[in-house]
Predict the structure.
Amino acid sequence: MTPIDIRASVLTLHQQSTGLREISRVLHLSRNTVRGILREPQGVQTPAHPVNEVTQQQLTEVYARAKGNAVRMAQILADEYKLHPPYSTLTRWVRQAELRQPPKRSGEYHFEPGQEMQHDTSPHKMEVAGKSITAQCAGLTLAYSRRLFIWYYPRFTRFEAKDFLLRAAQFMDGTCPLCVIDNTSVILAGGAGPDAVFAPEMAAFARALGFKFMAHRVNDPDRKARIERPFAWVEDNFLPGRSFSSFDDLNAQALKWCVEVANAKPKRSLGMAPEVAYVMEKPYCEWLPECASIWRQRYCAELRICTPWGA
């Protein structure tokens, strides 16, 4: 149905004393959408500039020529047909004519316990020790339980990547056999997606922790949406209203937030908190090698010597 048909259906059902929840269920609309339609002034039902049949044909032709670009469509309509519709009117005509294909669902991935984990980084602006900086937020999540771990670095090279992956593996007390990443040069030596060639040192480091990397296809970030989405949550929920005296302080607060908020809050899609789901996933994860604890102590000692900002 077109937007006008949907609006008319909502109003008709409402006039028949149909409840908001029932309207939402019958028309497959969210309750907020139904509320918005019911709150609109009744005078907007009839379009101010209805499109006639001739204009409809011109619109279809121009839409194809402009490849759907509304700004270019307005220019062609003005130059060749002497039509000067406002931008909002032009886009409404396009919607009414249903010229645009509805967006396709990107799909949904289902993961089994211990099947894979996902890793990515994101630049976050903040103040540390009174200075405005852009720090790199590294994140890793278990795809099934959504258990999240984040850690901040002033930069993110292969050196920091190894430190983070080791910290994340110990936080999860294990690993999944597959770690999905983007096509970052920090881990890749060349190629992309299925043709990616991983840097030998990073591939060896992953094997030591019991997993291997897999790079998703180019322009397909949804493949690792489990770790993409939490970054916005971190920026909107963790960073606002917080001050940090150092990177050590920043990461101590980030770790506490992961434990007490991110992993303790129930998720609607899970039906439980990530920490609860993790209890079910943990038996399926790969055990860390016995030397991991000693390895980490030595590695972090070297890291603190080499990086003046701290780990």
